[in-house]
UniProtKB/TrEMBL annotation:
Pathway(s) of this molecule: Cell wall biogenesis; peptidoglycan biosynthesis; Glycan biosynthesis
Annotated Polar residues bias: 365-376, 762-776
Name of the protein described by the UniProt record: Penicillin-binding protein 1A
Native species: Desulfallas thermosapovorans DSM 6562
Cellular compartments annotated: Cell membrane
Domain Penicillin-binding protein transpeptidase: 340-611
Length: 776
């Protein structure tokens, strides 16, 4: 029998098995590592140096170069490393990377320690949050990579860190890092953090304060002392311990810093976060137009403005005061109505000192009515479209006389202007007409003397652009209206002796590195003669002293003009002193009637409240009278020199530009014989006649005018008949005796011995001496 050979079973060699497994693991790991390395390099983000420049907030400064606020997507202010004290730098080195100046971007031992820590955590051990990232790696992560925690990202981080160290010095890397990191409470970078937590610049931080900030960055939302004071203090002390351990500070500095009380900025981080919102909005709007959104909100610009914080505060408070407005309510959108706006300009420089575009400011509805909402100006436009060009172009003046009487302009749809009170004052001077805002006089100046095209050109010199639609523009009936800013700029030209300066609110803009990108160039241009400006000012002083603007009196010389549109839908006051110009508007965003509201009420009240405060500390002084003006006494019913029949009550003394003082004498006042009973021209039967000084005009007067009874009657007495005669056989004198100077004009003298009056007068009753100036 053959025997079967029994096979011997081979035993497993443990050493060989482990070696085999290790070889397989090594090959797989090497392959995986090579593949991962390949993928990491393949997907490596481009080293775009623009990414190293963080989004810096734009800083806005007031006229005193004090920081007002910052605008931008991040609250960040760039500072150079030279502006950051060494102890502040060392606080961050101690907290984050005390061997920063010794490595080349990464630390192998730290990475290995972190890897072991991660592996142990996967096996259930508690994670030890010892950081593996150097400052260079953190900067790379912030600038080029996403926050995911993967091996691929770690490989990319290491590669980019080597690149970073090869291109930049340690000082440049540290500077970029300190300006980039987030500190919580909306603060990015060391400067913003210093301001947010301590209200001071980074250059003024103490060791203890620097340690607090360095301790925050590991978990800004948790370690902020505003969120958890004790935890923030604990991390500050830990950083101080590290600074002492790594010999950044000595024993004495360490003890002193540990003992320093932690005092945070008062009011928290939200105090005055967005002050003067309408002014800041206006600045932001201009910046975006000049430089674009990217530069404005991320470029770290420094913007120096004309803002006067005190005056701005006065204006904002006045606009917030319910007592300064008619009865108010909210519309369907929740906006308080009526609304208001105010602009204040320094006339000599054109600088906008304050601007308020509404009674409330919300981010959802931030309509800036001071600059974005043109409205009908009412009578506030009269000095610009009627009186100014009449003085400048036609040689008229405050004592020029116009007949405030009914008039109709048939070529403009039978347009008949009406005065506010409905009455007519008759023959009045321009000063009186402006003082009491007489509408018909303004329209007659525009239509019968200045002409619309000339008035439009005159207004354009002050950047008031008018569509020449018709006579109503003299009363503010404009197609597109004006903004408070435009009107303030025009009135500033009058206050500035006729020199117009474009309103300026931004004086200078610097880039984050100090390069000047923009500087305001103020080039005044002559909008009107100095004498014209002063005569307008002097007339508008009368408006405030005794006319429609008495509500704007502040105990010092003020000139101004009220404006009220139909039914009070828009009410204005535009006024000025030698130092400041202010324009106030009130109305509904969608025009609504405001009964019993006028420019001389609420707007003048706001103007007075703000300007009285704004002029504190400014000595009271009057407007400077230029050369080329003289005073003269004239007849207030003809505008000529007083004649033999001018009564004392019709004599006025006023200002005239050189060359416009009339040389002719009044012949409007005449001696007229009238019936003693009826005051009409006598008929042959009137038993008693008297001679009166009356006004003789070359046109028929309306009985509606206030001085109608002073005018030579056009009707003959119809009360007295033959029965009125005592002795019928006695011859009755039927002549009417009217003595009119100038009857003997052909001989060169009138019948009173005065020079003959060879002058013309139009059908609206203006008496124009031949020597009242030359048309320009």
């Amino acid at each position: 029998m053959s025997a079967k050979k029994k096979r011997k079973k081979r035993k497993l060699n443990p050493t060989r098995f482990i070696l085999f497994i290790l070889i397989i693991f090594f090959l797989v790991s090497a392959g995986a590592t090579a593949g991962l390395l390949f993928v990491s390099i393949k997907d490596l983000p481009a080293f775009n140096e623009k990414n190293l420049i963080p989004a810096n907030a734009t800083q806005i400064f007031d006229s005193n170069e004090q920081l007002v606020t910052q605008i931008g997507s991040e609250n960040r202010t760039q500072v150079s490393l030279s502006q950051i004290p060494l102890h502040v730098q060392e606080a961050f080195l101690a907290a984050e990377d005390h061997l920063f100046y010794e490595h080349h971007g990464i630390r192998i031992e730290a990475i290995a320690r972190a890897a072991i820590n991660d592996a142990l955590h996967m096996l259930g051990a508690e994670r030890n949050f010892q950081g593996a990232s150097t400052i260079t790696q953190q900067l790379v992560k912030l600038s080029f990579l996403n926050p995911e925690r993967t091996i691929k990202r770690k490989i990319q981080e290491a590669i980019l860190s080597f690149k970073m160290e090869s291109r930049y010095s340690k000082e440049e890397i540290l500077s970029m890092y300190l300006n980039r990191i987030y500190f919580g409470e909306g603060a990015y970078g060391i400067q913003a953090a210093a301001q947010t937590y301590f209200g001071r610049d980074a250059g003024d931080l103490t060791i203890a304060q620097a340690a607090l900030l360095a301790g925050i960055i590991k978990s800004p939302n948790n370690y902020s002392p505003y969120q958890n004071f004790d935890l923030g203090l604990s991390h500050r002390n830990q950083v101080l311990d590290d600074m002492y351990r790594y010999n950044f500070i000595n024993e004495g500095e360490y003890q002193q810093a540990k003992a320093e009380e932690l005092v945070l900025k008062q009011g928290g981080t939200n105090a005055n976060k967005y002050p003067y919102p309408y002014f800041v909005d206006y600045i932001t709007e201009q910046l975006v137009e000049k430089f674009g959104e990217e530069k404005v909100f991320k470029g770290g610009l420094k913007v120096y403005t004309t803002l006067d914080p005190q005056i701005q505060t006065y204006a904002e408070n006045a606009m917030a005061n319910q007592a300064n407005f008619p009865s108010s309510q909210r519309d369907s959108s929740g906006v308080l109505q009526p609304q208001g706006a105010m602009v204040i300009i320094e006339p000599r420089t054109g600088e906008v000192k304050a601007l308020v575009g509404g009674r409330e400011h919300t981010h959802q509805r931030s309509l800036n009515r001071a600059t974005m909402s043109p409205r009908q100006p009412g009578s506030a436009i009269k000095p610009i479209l009627a009186y100014g060009p009449a003085i400048e172009l036609k040689g008229m003046g405050p004592a020029t006389v116009i007949d405030d009487a009914p008039v109709t302009y048939h070529s403009y749809g039978n347009y008949s202007p009406r005065n506010s009170g409905g009455g007519y004052r008759g023959l009045i001077t321009l000063r009186t007409a402006l003082t009491h805002s007489v509408n018909i006089v303004a329209v007659k100046l525009l239509m019968d003397h200045v002409q619309i095209s000339n008035a439009v050109n005159f207004a354009a010199r002050m950047n008031i652009n008018i569509d020449p639609t018709g006579p109503a523009i003299a009363l503010g009936g404009l197609k597109h209206g004006v903004t408070p800013m435009q009107l303030a700029g025009a009135y500033a030209a009058i206050a500035n002796n006729g020199l117009y300066i474009d309103p300026v609110s931004i004086l200078k803009v610097e880039d984050y590195d100090g390069t000047v990108l923009f500087e305001a160039e103020r080039t005044p241009r002559r909008a009107m003669k100095e004498t014209t400006a002063y005569l307008l000012t002097d007339m508008m002083k009368s408006v405030v002293q005794s006319g429609t603007g008495t509500g704007a009196q502040i105990g010092r010389p003020v000139a101004g003009k009220t404006g009220t549109t139909d039914d009070g839908k828009d009410i204005w006051f535009a006024g000025y002193t030698p130092d400041l110009v202010g324009v106030v508007w009130i109305g509904y965003d969608t025009p609504v009637k405001m009964p019993h509201s006028y420019g001389g009420t609420y707007p003048a009240q706001i103007w007075r409240e703000v300007m009285r405060q704004a002029h504190q500390g400014i000595p009271s002084h009057d407007f400077t009278r230029p050369q080329g003006l003289t005073s003269a006494t004239v007849d207030s019913k003809s505008g000529l020199l007083p004649g033999p029949n001018t009564p004392p009550e019709h004599m006025v003394t006023d200002l005239f530009a050189s060359g416009t003082v009339p040389s002719k004498h009044d012949n409007v006042h005449v001696l007229t014989e009238v019936c003693a009973t009826t005051g009409l021209l006598p008929n042959q039967y009137c038993p008693e006649r008297i001679t009166r000084v009356m006004l003789k005009l070359p046109y028929t007067s309306s009985p509606a005018v206030a001085d109608y009874n002073l005018r030579v009657p056009t009707k003959i007495c119809d009360v007295h008949g033959i029965d009125s005669v005592t002795n019928p056989e006695e011859e009755v004198n039927t002549d009417v005796n009217i003595t009119i100077p100038g009857n003997d004009a052909e001989n060169g003298v009138d019948n009173q011995g005065h020079p003959a009056d060879r002058r013309s007068r139009n059908n609206n009753g203006l008496y124009m001496p031949n020597n009242t100036g030359t048309d320009l």
